[in-house]
Amino acid sequence: MATHEKHASLHGWDAENPRYWEKTGKKIAQRNLWISVFALLLAFCVWMLFSAVAVNLNKVGFNFTTDQLFLLTALPSLSGAIFRVPYSFAVPLFGGRQWTVISTAILIIPCVWLGFAVQNTATPYSIFIIISLLCGFAGANFASSMGNISFFFPKARQGSALGINGGLGNLGVSVMQLLTPIVVTLPIFAFLGVHGIEQADGGTLWLANAAWLWVPLLIIAVLAAWFGMDTLAGTQASLREQLTVLKRGHMWLLSLLYLATFGSFIGFSAGFAMLAKTQFPMSIFLSWPSSARSARWRDRSAASFPTSSAGFASRW
Prior knowledge:
Helix content is 68%, strand content 1%. With 316 residues, the chain is mainly alpha-helical. A hairpin with a 5-residue loop joins strand 1 (197-198) and strand 2.
Protein backbone atom coordinates (compact mmCIF):
# COMPACT_ATOMS: atom_id res chain seq x y z
CA MET A 1 0.00 0.00 0.00
CA ALA A 2 1.25 3.46 -0.88
CA THR A 3 2.20 5.59 2.10
CA HIS A 4 3.45 9.12 2.48
CA GLU A 5 3.75 11.86 5.01
CA LYS A 6 2.34 15.32 4.34
CA HIS A 7 4.25 16.97 1.46
CA ALA A 8 6.63 13.98 1.28
CA SER A 9 7.22 11.48 -1.49
CA LEU A 10 4.72 8.70 -2.09
CA HIS A 11 6.29 5.31 -1.33
CA GLY A 12 5.28 1.82 -2.43
CA TRP A 13 3.81 2.88 -5.78
CA ASP A 14 2.95 -0.15 -7.95
CA ALA A 15 0.66 0.91 -10.78
CA GLU A 16 1.32 -2.33 -12.71
CA ASN A 17 -0.32 -4.38 -9.95
CA PRO A 18 -4.05 -4.69 -10.91
CA ARG A 19 -5.27 -5.02 -7.32
CA TYR A 20 -3.18 -2.10 -6.13
CA TRP A 21 -4.28 0.00 -9.09
CA GLU A 22 -8.00 -0.52 -8.53
CA LYS A 23 -7.85 -0.18 -4.76
CA THR A 24 -5.39 2.69 -4.31
CA GLY A 25 -3.46 3.79 -7.37
CA LYS A 26 -6.28 4.79 -9.71
CA LYS A 27 -7.73 7.43 -7.41
CA ILE A 28 -4.34 9.00 -6.69
CA ALA A 29 -3.34 8.94 -10.36
CA GLN A 30 -6.57 10.56 -11.52
CA ARG A 31 -6.28 13.32 -8.91
CA ASN A 32 -2.78 14.14 -10.10
CA LEU A 33 -3.90 13.96 -13.73
CA TRP A 34 -6.73 16.48 -13.43
CA ILE A 35 -4.66 18.96 -11.44
CA SER A 36 -1.97 18.58 -14.08
CA VAL A 37 -4.51 19.22 -16.85
CA PHE A 38 -5.66 22.43 -15.17
CA ALA A 39 -2.11 23.69 -14.69
CA LEU A 40 -1.07 22.75 -18.23
CA LEU A 41 -4.15 24.36 -19.78
CA LEU A 42 -3.25 27.63 -18.05
CA ALA A 43 0.34 27.25 -19.21
CA PHE A 44 -0.83 27.09 -22.82
CA CYS A 45 -2.97 30.17 -22.21
CA VAL A 46 0.09 32.09 -21.04
CA TRP A 47 2.27 30.67 -23.82
CA MET A 48 -0.01 32.11 -26.50
CA LEU A 49 -0.73 35.43 -24.77
CA PHE A 50 1.09 37.49 -27.36
CA SER A 51 -0.98 36.02 -30.18
CA ALA A 52 -3.87 38.06 -28.76
CA VAL A 53 -1.93 40.97 -27.25
CA ALA A 54 0.46 41.84 -30.10
CA VAL A 55 -2.35 42.44 -32.57
CA ASN A 56 -3.78 45.10 -30.24
CA LEU A 57 -0.67 46.90 -28.99
CA ASN A 58 -0.88 49.70 -31.52
CA LYS A 59 -4.56 50.16 -30.67
CA VAL A 60 -3.63 51.26 -27.16
CA GLY A 61 -1.00 53.79 -28.18
CA PHE A 62 2.14 51.91 -29.20
CA ASN A 63 3.77 52.39 -32.58
CA PHE A 64 5.41 49.08 -33.42
CA THR A 65 6.02 47.87 -36.95
CA THR A 66 4.38 44.76 -38.36
CA ASP A 67 7.71 42.92 -38.21
CA GLN A 68 8.13 43.84 -34.56
CA LEU A 69 4.66 42.57 -33.71
CA PHE A 70 5.22 39.32 -35.59
CA LEU A 71 8.45 38.83 -33.66
CA LEU A 72 6.61 39.20 -30.36
CA THR A 73 4.24 36.39 -31.37
CA ALA A 74 7.13 34.15 -32.45
CA LEU A 75 9.51 34.51 -29.49
CA PRO A 76 7.42 32.57 -26.94
CA SER A 77 7.46 29.56 -29.28
CA LEU A 78 11.23 29.86 -29.63
CA SER A 79 11.99 30.09 -25.92
CA GLY A 80 9.37 27.45 -25.15
CA ALA A 81 11.04 25.00 -27.52
CA ILE A 82 14.48 25.68 -26.09
CA PHE A 83 13.43 25.40 -22.45
CA ARG A 84 11.54 22.17 -23.04
CA VAL A 85 14.92 20.43 -23.14
CA PRO A 86 15.96 21.24 -19.53
CA TYR A 87 12.35 21.02 -18.35
CA SER A 88 12.15 17.41 -19.57
CA PHE A 89 14.85 16.51 -17.01
CA ALA A 90 13.31 18.50 -14.14
CA VAL A 91 10.75 16.05 -12.72
CA PRO A 92 13.24 13.28 -11.83
CA LEU A 93 15.55 15.94 -10.37
CA PHE A 94 13.07 17.93 -8.27
CA GLY A 95 9.97 15.74 -7.98
CA GLY A 96 6.67 15.99 -9.85
CA ARG A 97 4.69 17.91 -7.27
CA GLN A 98 7.49 20.35 -6.48
CA TRP A 99 8.27 21.07 -10.12
CA THR A 100 4.61 21.57 -11.04
CA VAL A 101 4.36 24.17 -8.29
CA ILE A 102 7.56 25.94 -9.35
CA SER A 103 6.92 25.88 -13.10
CA THR A 104 3.34 27.13 -12.69
CA ALA A 105 4.27 29.88 -10.22
CA ILE A 106 6.92 31.21 -12.63
CA LEU A 107 4.17 32.04 -15.13
CA ILE A 108 2.68 34.65 -12.82
CA ILE A 109 5.72 36.88 -13.49
CA PRO A 110 5.19 37.55 -17.23
CA CYS A 111 1.43 37.91 -16.74
CA VAL A 112 1.75 40.58 -14.06
CA TRP A 113 4.58 42.34 -15.89
CA LEU A 114 2.72 42.39 -19.21
CA GLY A 115 -0.37 43.85 -17.56
CA PHE A 116 1.66 46.83 -16.36
CA ALA A 117 3.67 47.15 -19.59
CA VAL A 118 0.66 47.55 -21.89
CA GLN A 119 -0.69 50.39 -19.74
CA ASN A 120 2.38 52.56 -20.27
CA THR A 121 3.04 53.58 -23.89
CA ALA A 122 6.57 54.58 -22.87
CA THR A 123 7.40 50.90 -22.30
CA PRO A 124 10.30 50.14 -24.68
CA TYR A 125 10.07 47.35 -27.22
CA SER A 126 12.95 45.55 -25.49
CA ILE A 127 10.74 45.03 -22.42
CA PHE A 128 8.10 43.35 -24.54
CA ILE A 129 10.84 41.14 -26.00
CA ILE A 130 11.81 40.00 -22.49
CA ILE A 131 8.21 39.39 -21.45
CA SER A 132 7.49 37.40 -24.61
CA LEU A 133 10.53 35.22 -23.95
CA LEU A 134 9.34 34.67 -20.37
CA CYS A 135 5.95 33.55 -21.70
CA GLY A 136 7.89 30.80 -23.45
CA PHE A 137 8.51 29.16 -20.09
CA ALA A 138 4.82 28.24 -20.20
CA GLY A 139 5.38 26.18 -23.33
CA ALA A 140 8.20 24.31 -21.64
CA ASN A 141 5.76 23.10 -18.98
CA PHE A 142 4.39 20.60 -21.48
CA ALA A 143 7.58 18.52 -21.37
CA SER A 144 7.72 18.21 -17.59
CA SER A 145 3.96 17.76 -17.20
CA MET A 146 3.79 14.83 -19.61
CA GLY A 147 6.83 13.18 -18.06
CA ASN A 148 5.39 13.51 -14.58
CA ILE A 149 1.95 12.08 -15.37
CA SER A 150 3.41 9.06 -17.15
CA PHE A 151 4.86 7.83 -13.84
CA PHE A 152 1.41 7.49 -12.25
CA PHE A 153 -0.25 5.16 -14.76
CA PRO A 154 0.37 1.55 -15.78
CA LYS A 155 1.84 1.19 -19.25
CA ALA A 156 -1.49 0.00 -20.68
CA ARG A 157 -3.12 3.26 -19.62
CA GLN A 158 -0.30 5.73 -20.20
CA GLY A 159 -1.42 6.56 -23.73
CA SER A 160 -4.89 7.52 -22.53
CA ALA A 161 -3.58 9.55 -19.61
CA LEU A 162 -1.04 11.42 -21.71
CA GLY A 163 -3.64 12.04 -24.40
CA ILE A 164 -5.96 13.64 -21.85
CA ASN A 165 -3.17 15.64 -20.25
CA GLY A 166 -1.68 16.84 -23.53
CA GLY A 167 -4.91 17.27 -25.47
CA LEU A 168 -6.84 19.18 -22.84
CA GLY A 169 -3.69 21.12 -21.99
CA ASN A 170 -3.41 22.19 -25.64
CA LEU A 171 -6.98 23.42 -25.37
CA GLY A 172 -5.54 26.33 -23.41
CA VAL A 173 -4.66 27.93 -26.76
CA SER A 174 -8.35 27.91 -27.68
CA VAL A 175 -9.47 29.05 -24.24
CA MET A 176 -7.12 32.02 -24.31
CA GLN A 177 -8.08 33.07 -27.83
CA LEU A 178 -11.78 32.72 -27.03
CA LEU A 179 -11.80 34.53 -23.68
CA THR A 180 -9.19 37.24 -24.19
CA PRO A 181 -11.10 39.23 -26.84
CA ILE A 182 -14.09 39.23 -24.49
CA VAL A 183 -12.34 40.28 -21.29
CA VAL A 184 -10.39 43.14 -22.94
CA THR A 185 -13.72 44.84 -23.59
CA LEU A 186 -14.76 44.72 -19.92
CA PRO A 187 -13.56 46.88 -16.96
CA ILE A 188 -12.70 43.79 -14.90
CA PHE A 189 -9.65 45.29 -13.18
CA ALA A 190 -10.82 48.90 -13.04
CA PHE A 191 -10.69 48.63 -9.24
CA LEU A 192 -6.91 48.22 -9.59
CA GLY A 193 -6.65 51.44 -11.55
CA VAL A 194 -6.65 49.93 -15.04
CA HIS A 195 -7.86 52.52 -17.54
CA GLY A 196 -9.45 51.56 -20.83
CA ILE A 197 -8.41 53.10 -24.13
CA GLU A 198 -11.17 54.53 -26.32
CA GLN A 199 -11.28 53.01 -29.80
CA ALA A 200 -12.31 54.53 -33.13
CA ASP A 201 -15.41 52.35 -33.27
CA GLY A 202 -16.63 53.75 -29.95
CA GLY A 203 -15.58 50.79 -27.84
CA THR A 204 -13.03 50.65 -25.03
CA LEU A 205 -10.01 48.36 -24.78
CA TRP A 206 -8.63 47.21 -21.42
CA LEU A 207 -5.63 45.30 -22.78
CA ALA A 208 -4.11 44.64 -19.35
CA ASN A 209 -7.02 42.25 -18.73
CA ALA A 210 -5.55 39.85 -21.30
CA ALA A 211 -2.58 39.22 -19.00
CA TRP A 212 -4.04 39.69 -15.54
CA LEU A 213 -7.00 37.38 -16.20
CA TRP A 214 -4.73 34.36 -15.72
CA VAL A 215 -3.01 35.48 -12.50
CA PRO A 216 -5.72 34.38 -10.01
CA LEU A 217 -6.20 31.13 -11.92
CA LEU A 218 -2.47 30.43 -11.84
CA ILE A 219 -2.46 31.02 -8.09
CA ILE A 220 -5.29 28.50 -7.72
CA ALA A 221 -3.33 26.01 -9.84
CA VAL A 222 -0.20 26.48 -7.70
CA LEU A 223 -2.18 25.83 -4.52
CA ALA A 224 -3.93 22.83 -6.07
CA ALA A 225 -0.58 21.34 -7.09
CA TRP A 226 0.98 22.00 -3.69
CA PHE A 227 -1.83 20.45 -1.68
CA GLY A 228 -3.23 17.91 -4.16
CA MET A 229 -0.36 16.41 -6.15
CA ASP A 230 2.23 13.82 -5.20
CA THR A 231 5.86 13.02 -5.88
CA LEU A 232 6.56 9.33 -6.43
CA ALA A 233 9.52 7.92 -4.56
CA GLY A 234 11.86 5.97 -6.79
CA THR A 235 11.36 8.16 -9.87
CA GLN A 236 14.31 10.42 -9.08
CA ALA A 237 17.28 10.24 -11.43
CA SER A 238 20.43 12.27 -11.93
CA LEU A 239 21.02 14.31 -15.07
CA ARG A 240 23.74 11.91 -16.16
CA GLU A 241 21.35 8.96 -15.90
CA GLN A 242 18.69 10.76 -17.95
CA LEU A 243 21.06 11.85 -20.71
CA THR A 244 21.34 8.26 -21.92
CA VAL A 245 18.13 8.90 -23.87
CA LEU A 246 20.19 10.90 -26.36
CA LYS A 247 21.71 7.64 -27.60
CA ARG A 248 18.35 6.30 -28.79
CA GLY A 249 17.65 6.72 -32.48
CA HIS A 250 13.88 6.54 -32.01
CA MET A 251 13.98 9.68 -29.90
CA TRP A 252 15.55 11.69 -32.72
CA LEU A 253 13.09 10.36 -35.28
CA LEU A 254 10.14 11.23 -33.06
CA SER A 255 11.63 14.66 -32.48
CA LEU A 256 11.55 15.34 -36.22
CA LEU A 257 7.94 14.15 -36.43
CA TYR A 258 7.02 16.32 -33.47
CA LEU A 259 8.71 19.32 -35.07
CA ALA A 260 6.52 18.98 -38.15
CA THR A 261 3.24 18.34 -36.32
CA PHE A 262 3.14 20.16 -33.01
CA GLY A 263 5.55 22.79 -34.30
CA SER A 264 3.13 23.66 -37.07
CA PHE A 265 0.17 23.69 -34.68
CA ILE A 266 1.71 26.11 -32.22
CA GLY A 267 3.33 28.26 -34.90
CA PHE A 268 0.09 28.78 -36.81
CA SER A 269 -1.77 29.37 -33.55
CA ALA A 270 0.62 32.14 -32.54
CA GLY A 271 0.72 33.90 -35.89
CA PHE A 272 -2.84 33.53 -37.15
CA ALA A 273 -4.23 36.75 -35.69
CA MET A 274 -1.40 38.93 -36.97
CA LEU A 275 -1.47 37.18 -40.34
CA ALA A 276 -5.21 37.75 -40.71
CA LYS A 277 -4.91 41.38 -39.70
CA THR A 278 -2.09 42.19 -42.11
CA GLN A 279 -3.45 40.26 -45.11
CA PHE A 280 -7.13 41.15 -44.73
CA PRO A 281 -7.16 44.49 -42.86
CA MET A 282 -10.57 45.57 -44.19
CA SER A 283 -12.36 42.23 -43.86
CA ILE A 284 -15.60 42.42 -41.87
CA PHE A 285 -15.30 38.68 -41.15
CA LEU A 286 -12.03 39.30 -39.32
CA SER A 287 -13.32 42.25 -37.31
CA TRP A 288 -12.24 42.17 -33.66
CA PRO A 289 -13.32 40.42 -31.57
CA SER A 290 -16.29 38.31 -32.62
CA SER A 291 -15.70 36.62 -35.96
CA ALA A 292 -11.92 36.35 -35.80
CA ARG A 293 -12.10 35.05 -32.26
CA SER A 294 -14.58 32.36 -33.26
CA ALA A 295 -12.49 31.31 -36.25
CA ARG A 296 -9.33 30.95 -34.17
CA TRP A 297 -11.15 29.12 -31.40
CA ARG A 298 -12.59 26.58 -33.84
CA ASP A 299 -9.21 25.97 -35.44
CA ARG A 300 -7.37 25.38 -32.15
CA SER A 301 -10.17 23.27 -30.67
CA ALA A 302 -10.19 21.10 -33.79
CA ALA A 303 -6.56 20.27 -33.09
CA SER A 304 -6.85 19.81 -29.31
CA PHE A 305 -9.69 17.32 -29.04
CA PRO A 306 -8.17 14.76 -31.45
CA THR A 307 -4.99 14.93 -29.38
CA SER A 308 -6.93 13.63 -26.39
CA SER A 309 -8.61 10.85 -28.35
CA ALA A 310 -5.31 9.83 -29.93
CA GLY A 311 -4.10 8.80 -26.49
CA PHE A 312 -6.80 6.14 -26.30
CA ALA A 313 -5.99 4.93 -29.82
CA SER A 314 -2.36 4.40 -28.80
CA ARG A 315 -3.43 1.45 -26.67
CA TRP A 316 -3.96 -0.48 -29.91
